[in-house]
Amino acid sequence: MATSLTDADKRKQISVRGVAPLEGVDDIKEAFNRHLHFTLVKDRNVATSDDFYSALAHTVKDNMVGRWIRTQQYYYEKDPKRVYYLSLEFYMGRTLTNTMVNLGIQEQCDEAMYQLGLNIEELEEQEEDAGLGNGGLGRLAACFLDSMATLGLAAYGYGIRYEYGIFNQRIHDGWQTEEPDDWLRNGCVWERARPEYAVAVHFFGSVQNENGDWQKPSKWRNTQAVIALPYDTPTPGYGNNVVNTMRLWSARATRGFNLNLFNTGDYIQSVFDRNIAENISKVLYPNDNFFEGKELRLKQEYFVVCATLQDIVRRYKSSKFGCRDSVRTQFDQFHEKVAIQLNDTHPALAIPELIRLLVDVEGVAFDQAFEITKKTCAYTNHTVLPEALERWPVKMLENMLPRHLQIIYLINARHLKDVAKAFPNDSSKLREMSLIEEDGEKRVNMAYLAIVCSHAVNGVAAIHSQIIIDDTFKNFYEMSCRLGETNKWQNKTNGITPRRWLLLCNPSLSQAITDKIGDDWHLDLTKLRQLEEFASDKSFIRQIAQIKQENKERLASWLSQSQGIKIDSKAMFDIHVKRIHEYKRQLLNALHMVHLYNEIKNNPDGDFTPRVIMVGGKAAPGYHTAKKIIKLINSIADIVNNDPIIGDRLKIVYINNYRVSTAEKVVLLFCFSLLLFEKVTPACDLSEQISTAGTEASGTGNMKFMLNGALTIGTLDGANVEMSEELGGKNIFIFGMKVEDVEAMDKKGYNPQDFYNGSPNLRRALDQIRAGLFSPKQPDLFSGFVDDLLKWDRFKVCADFDAYVTCQEEVSQLYKDEDEWTRQCIMNVAAAGKFSSDRTIHDYATEIWGCEPSPGQRIPGPSDAHPGTEE
Ligand SMILES: *Cc1c(COP(=O)(O)O)cnc(C)c1O
Predict the structure, then answer these.
(1) How many angstroms separate the CA atoms of 224 and 306, rounded?
(2) What does the pLDDT look like over 56-66, one tens digit per residue?
(3) pLDDT above 90 for 659
(4) Would you say the CB of residue 139 lies under 6 angstroms from ligand 1?
(5) Which residue's CA lies nearest to atom 10 of ligand 1?
(6) CB of 488 closer than 6 A to ligand 1?
(7) Is residue 578 lining ligand 1, measured as CB closer than 6 Å?
(8) What residue spans carry the region label Disordered (predicted)?
(9) 100, 187, 174: which is closest to 629 by C-alpha?
């Protein structure tokens, strides 16, 4: 049974390493009351939970600003190399708890709220998620900010302050519908507008070249300007007093925007039209691993890049190193002071933009500008799916960014000379490797642009980095080898921050670990290896099993509140949460559900391991197949969950948003998927990581579950491969085709029909779905879907079905042996150390950015802080 300790009680027992209380409980209470009174203009009688949340958030923020100012002053004094992480997404989630954890003031805040008669967990639940991301790529950027600050790097995250983040998903009659995510409705405590650093961003217009020479400093005229207004959010390191900055840009119309209309007298219309400019930062495009090619998206990509590079160059010039006293700033050492990391090609326009600034504004010669840019920039590839690779039509660039298109052509000319040098007598390479694709509508291949102008290119897991050089960018890799570019092609296996993904989301497991091995693991996750020693210790096994059980009970009670579905918390929690995408194969899981259903129905008295299969995730609004998969899973759930023969042996839950009215307001339970991840991760027994081999670049969901002591069922894809290696090939359920098998099958010609004919279980499941067993009101709802699958099955669901089912049977067998299962869970936690984003960032810093991390080294605290310049 659950103990009577609340999360808050347990957290009180967790001591944060080496950080002395910075403010006493009384100070926190006083600051809290002051904010309630002066900032929120409320008293205790009329304050809402939201007011209490805000008062606490302000109080916690107060504890951070001294460190923030100090850190930025420190960077100004020391002038270390700056690292700029450019990303169209930062999936930050909630900030309050994370800030308390990193500042080491969680205990004091818990105690202060307790003394004030408030429940801190309830206040924490009031915070809106900052959902400025789609999935793994955006969450990675957020984990990196945590690790960069924790490692003491002078780093900045640069992105867009979307007014609407990732949509809220609701399920109506089994179908996904989308609602706008108005996350700024009640304001955001953590951000600070910085109008003094606003810059202009130009679009459209035309170019005037000197003597028609594109390489000469040129003028870009008759443009339409938009103002980029920065909002800064502090990103604290863990226990080291470092507070870095995430700067997100918001679009504002210029004063003179649409002056034409204004002059013709239509004042009202000219005010309305300011929206056109301000729409740039209105909404996050909700695609994960998919390129949509919309003009507004291109505007967003240029907007963030242009504003950010102006900021970077301004900071460089105003630094001590930037030779403020010489007439002209020296740029030949720019790359020794600035590293720019491109999170996928989304911000790849940073390349022509930096060259443009250097040539047209700073008067640097084109060839030198190219070399500086290349030494400064590095590119991370995140996917090999062709539909996700950005290829912008030349026409669109010519219209919106005419000077940048010229620069891209200049880069291409240089590049093609190098291609000819590397591949003499092979003219086919010129066509294959041109940055400009000529077949069909002319397009710029943004990955090729990023590769050619970066000194480092990396994949995000060992297998993915190998696929990139063997396949996706083979020509470019070969060219690097021939031209002697060593160390350009790298791997940086993704990671997750152990603060949010263990310390914060699973306090009881954290405490149990610390009781055994101390708390060094907070900053060196490889220390978890020491747990192996206790993996067979009966009392430790009991303790870990108990913690998992409590976490499951907590999730079960959430689910019964939010979905109205009663589940048995003793059953295996089999969890598959991530974006809905064909390559991630939620469909394979769905077919397994149908299979289990059939097995129980055929043998009602059989001995089955009870399972609750939970699936959750959002489909891109325009991705019809993904939406149909959601409907299919909900349809299967409807039949299975209401079949009395099945009972508690199989329950299927599609985790979705649900509105609950409390006394105060309507609350969305589980409406945000980052939150969903945080709630679900500690309670998972079995983690589903079943993408087709060769399609998932890395995955990070897999790591979160492993770190929290779930067992994984997965293919040898992405980081699963390295997880299996860390586990010595044991204590993980690997099944299905490997990359080589998939390739061989494609070569031979894949026919899903063969597997349908060869597998009675698969045939039965597909026939049932096709015939409408799970959609009785609309019997042909899924028939076209099944027919298409049997024709194409791009992601080889049919080919892997039998292996998956067999592997799941082994899972069910093992779950019956609770102690052995738990022992293997402990072995998973013990082997998860590699997957800390601290390790990932350490490797980026030393192998790509050329700067030295200083983990564990604290900078001066806030006590002697005094107000100064921001930078
Ligand atoms: C970690 C995370 C992901 C990535 O999950 P994968 O299984 O790697 O696709 C997606 N969304 C959210 C909210 C996450 O926290």
Answers:
(1) 14
(2) 999 999 999 99
(3) no
(4) yes
(5) 135
(6) no
(7) yes
(8) 851-871
(9) 174
pLDDT digits (tens, 9 = 90+) for 407-416: 999 999 999 9
| Active site (annotated) includes residue 700 | yes
Spacing, Cα 267 to ligand 1 middle (Å) = 47
Report the sign of the C-alpha dihedral through residues 306, 311, 314, 319, in that order. Answer: negative
- Residue 404 pLDDT grade (very low, low, confident, very high; cuts 50, 70, 90): very high
CA distances to 122, 152, 329, 581 from 557, in Å: 16, 40, 62, 29
| 410 CA → ligand 1 middle, Å | 39
Give residue-wise pLDDT tens across range 67-93: 999 999 999 999 999 999 999 999 999
Which is more confident, 845 or 5?
845
Tokens of 150: 């924790």
643 in Cβ contact with 632 (< 8 Å): no
Verdict on whether the full-model pTM lies above 0.70: yes
Structure tokens at 487: 């160390």
672 close to ligand 1 (CB < 6 Angstrom): no
676 sits in which H/E element: helix 673-680
Rounded average pLDDT over 316-337: 79
Residue of 11, 429, 704, 839 with catalytic role: 704
Closest ligand 1 atom to the C-alpha of 496? 1
* 481 CA from centroid of ligand 1 (Å): 35
SS3 for 108? helix
Q: Is 527 a catalytic residue?
A: no
Sorted by where each starts, the structural domains of the chain and their CATH numbers stand as 1-78+106-126 (no CATH), 501-835 (3.40.50.2000)
* CA–CA separation, 709 and 825 (whole Å): 5
3-state secondary structure 602-618: HCCCCCCCCEEEEEECC
